[in-house]
Amino acid sequence: MKSTWTTKIFTTTFKSEHSPREDNLDGVRIERVPIAMKYMQYLYTPDLRNRLSAFEPDLVHAHGYRSYQTEVAFEYARRQRKPFVISMHGMASGYASMVTGVSAKLPYWAYDRGRGLQMLSRSDAIVVNSSLEENEVAAFLKGRSDKIVKIPVGVEDRGRAEVEPDQRDQSLLFVGRITRDRNLPLLLRAFSMLSKTHPRLRLKIVGGEGVRSSRVRAGVMPELKALSSSLGLKNVEFTGELRGEALQEAYRNSDIFVYTSLYENFGQTILDAAAYGLPVISTRVGVVPDLIDDGENGIILKANDSPLELARAVNLLLADVDLRRDFGKKIRAKALGLFSWDKVIPAYAKLYQGLT
């Protein structure tokens, strides 16, 4: 579909001196607005109002919630009487899975009871990416869900180079930013159990350390490596962040994708794994209920499952190559059938055209 829109994306950056202030990619203009101050995840960008006004858009789509940038976009859209769309990206109540204690949650509560709900109630559309997020936002708005539009994140047809099991050792894969709520100690402890019966089994943990809230203690990567060492694990590789061909090879050369997160706004790497034809074992987060039919094309873990239960799920697939291939084939077909960009882009075009 050829777009007739002229699009500009305003994004923030901490390192503006190392990045061009403006890019042009396939007709989309990208401007990076330097960040002047930060409180928790609230980033102040002083020049955004002027840049947005100079562009004079017909529609404003803000990504993120509890955000200065979204507030500026909302104010501009209301003042100029332009349609305003907001993508929540799991920010309605996802913080509850990342921070603990009344003092840590108080800024979120205060914002929601004032500026936040006012902004959401006056938006023209609220985009969510999954059924779980749709339910979460509906509950957050106390049932006022007529403005909620579900449009998933898209995925490309990744293809997959089939490797026969006897050509290499079996391998488990996790891909994601390394944070505490990803619950990776569960995976390491399950892998310790599996290693006793599968001594050549390998585990690759791909991702750099991140902190999803400034109220969450950092330093999870050294703790995970220390746990791996204390368990005596020999075949665990922490690769750090991978991109491009290196990341593609990690997917292609693995047998099972395992995801143990406690919360996820969507879970793009889960969808990517499915597009590569990897059978997926995951907790019920983000895109999982829309993608995985438990026991048919993958396995959904319960939130309180133990390392033993995770090890049993992995062992079920390790022991049956035909089941692995069947799950991989089915989940790949579902991923490409429901989440291809050929479906996602027209959904956005329909939304925008209906508002302008």
Can you characterise this structure?
The chain has 356 residues and is of the alpha/beta class. The protein folds into two domains: 7-154 and 340-355, 3-Layer(aba) Sandwich (Rossmann fold); 165-338, Glycogen Phosphorylase B (Rossmann fold, 3-Layer(aba) Sandwich). It is built from twelve helices and 15 strands. The protein has helices at residues 48-55, 68-80, 102-121, 131-140, 184-197, 220-230, 244-252, 268-275, 288-291, 307-318, 321-339, 341-355, and strands at 7-13, 22-25, 28-34, 37-39, 42-44, 60-63, 84-87, 125-128, 148-150, 171-175, 202-206, 236-240, 256-259, 280-283, 298-301. It has a six-stranded parallel beta sheet, sandwiched between helices. A hairpin with a 2-residue loop joins strand 4 (37-39) and strand 5. Helix 1 runs parallel beside helix 2 (68-80) and helix 8 packs across helix 11 (321-339). The radius of gyration is 22 Å and the shape is globular. The relative contact order is 0.11.
Architecture of the largest domain, CATH level 2? Answer: 3-Layer(aba) Sandwich
- C-alpha Rg (nearest Å): 22 Å
Fraction in beta strands:
15-25%
Overall mean pLDDT: 87
Number of domains: 2
| Beta strands, count | 15
Adjacency order of strands in the biggest sheet: 12-11-10-13-14-15
**How would you describe the shape?**
globular
* Helical fraction: 40-55%
Structural class: alpha/beta
- Number of helices, where a helix is a run of at least 4 consecutive DSSP H or I residues: 12
Query: What is the distance, rounded to the nearest whole angstrom, between the alpha carbons of the first and last residues?
Result: 19 Å
CATH superfamily of the largest domain: Glycogen Phosphorylase B
**CATH C-level category of the largest domain:** Alpha Beta
Unreliable residue runs:
16-20
Order of helices and strands: EEEEEHEHEHEHEEHEHEHEHEHEHHH
* Quaternary structure: single chain
